[in-house]
């Protein structure tokens, strides 16, 4: 998917919220003011989606990201739901038959890691940034100040076999770029959603069994203070 999110720079603080009530994902505005990815197509993100992403601009330099995934079977101690910003440059990508093999390398990733079992059960959600190098995924170290600046307003919910995570991320990061591993989101990207088993230092890669991937091809157009999403095509891989 292509993304173009040009906004005013702003530094934010992080607030972690563990909600006792249910976190809902609102589909209103999908394809207009929001970008939405759902697998299977047409599923209800509050009920039966294997994986779903909704993201939209909520203020100057603020991208709100809402993610949901079905708990893996068999269960794992830690499961992630991730959004990947995939660097693919082409003029007519919507004409290509893209599969997961086209999205394995040089991708900036933000993932939310949660658990409802084992020693991690009931722990706070953790939001990390990472980078795909080929078929491997490596966490990018952020100190507390950098993390609070880049990611804010985290909330999560695990119930009825669904893992839900919401957070806000800076579009133009106001932190060290870690030798180019962390980039601006006001550029053209394909957007990819994924869920799978989390490891202590990163994610299982897309070549691993049990990783579910959704790929959306769309273009963001900013008109004044509104974001219009031009949905071009969706690709789903497992």
TrEMBL record:
Entry keyword GTP-binding: no
Keywords on record: Signal
Organism: Angiostrongylus cantonensis (Rat lungworm)
BP GO terms, sorted: regulation of glutamate receptor signaling pathway
Top-level lineage group: Eukaryota
Signal peptide per UniProt: 1-21
Protein name as annotated: DOMON domain-containing protein
